[in-house]
Amino acid sequence: MRSNMNIRKIVIWLVVIAVVSLTIAAIAFFSTENYMVSFRDRNNFEGNSIDEVKTFGIDQLKEIYIHSVSSDVSVFSTDEEDIKVHFYGRSALKSEKALPKLITNLEGSKLKIGIEYPKVLFYNANVVLDVYIPQDYRGNINIDTVSADVDISDLDLNNFHCKTVSGDLRIESLGSDNLTLNTTSGDVDIVDFSGNLKADLVSGDIDVRYRVFDNNVDVKTISGEVKIDLPQNAEFYLKTNTVSGEVVARFPITIISFNKMNQLEGTVGTGDNRIIVDTVSGDIYINK
Question: 43-57, 58-72, 230-244: which range is least confident on average?
Fold first, then answer.
């Protein structure tokens, strides 16, 4: 009996301590500069508008880094001489101190672009990050996003790397020596492309259409369909493998090895260029 009484006392004290701790934490949170959006604000989206613009010259600039969480990113070509970064939209938060802010940092040959978000319990905003790149820029671009779509168009770069989590990626009219993609839970659509491609995808389809082809392609997916469209005169070595899917190649292939509809190895023409595609659950299409 005494033992049971002691256990009950311990449980009661633990509950009291937990309640007190939560109360202190709540008081500390609301005593700081953090803000909570009221339910009225969330239903009545009349917060502040956001409109920030920054410009940078491209002299000596070799690398551009872009990081975004929850804000869609678009990167365009421009006839202007400078890089223009435009961050805009609306936020339900009415306090100026609680608005997301554009953060940029130019260090030597590297330009870093990112968004700083307020620390709030409830956050509701519709904001977009646009980056305009001069046509003369031939450096590298690195993009890292979470819960955001990415749109790239009309660029000619040395190297382009994009890492996305929970967001679609669309690329149109891109020339790049090396295009490297790492995506999780998002589709990839590439139109009018030239360059080497290396892509690792988890849970997402990829559709690539080459305008000219004299390159190497290496694509790996866990769960997703792979489509690669090539010019009719393309020549390449092809090796594909899929665990649960089929391989369809619409080129006259000299077969090296073939295993049912899951594995294919062969050459088209000279086979100087290389296309290697691996999927776990997804079909593979090599079209012309």
Answer: 43-57
